[in-house]
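A protein record pairs a chain with a discrete description of its three-dimensional fold. The shape at a given residue is found from the number at the same position. Here is what such a record looks like in full:
>
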Amino acid sequence: MSDSAKKRKIPVGLTLIYLLLVIGGGIGVSMALLREASIQNDLSQLTYIGLVILLNAGTAWVGFCIWKGDSRSYRWARLIFLLQVPVLSFSKLTYEFYTGAFLGLTFSQEAASKLNLNLELGSLTSLQISPGIHGLIVGVNLVALAALLYLRALGAQEGRSGAVAERAYEEPMHGS
């Protein structure tokens, strides 16, 4: 059969990853554009919003490349999910970033229940350096951690055989 007769079947794990990246990145760009519309003449905030737009647009692009079968985009996806794993808030710094989904397991020094599990859908990019932040919150995004581990497993397979895209995307023959 010719290549046009082959149909690409994307594994469920990769489908979830590219959906998280594309949809989450798109939501992130949309939310940043809405935020940008409300900012007036504050160069530092406009610069931050511009970087958030670039980050989320890049995230969506990486997801699109994974969907197209480009195994080179796995390295970028691993980096994006690595950035989404930690949740930190202490002293004067807060950091949280996710696209698509967040299942956070966090420890909070000040909350009534010290250990929390939180589910959020959407996109968030938050980096705050402020004298008003107090308390300690440390956690992990379990969705990002699972995606990172899945992509690392694909990378390990690539290292052994050099052909991640061929194994990750099964191409069954039709009409045999």
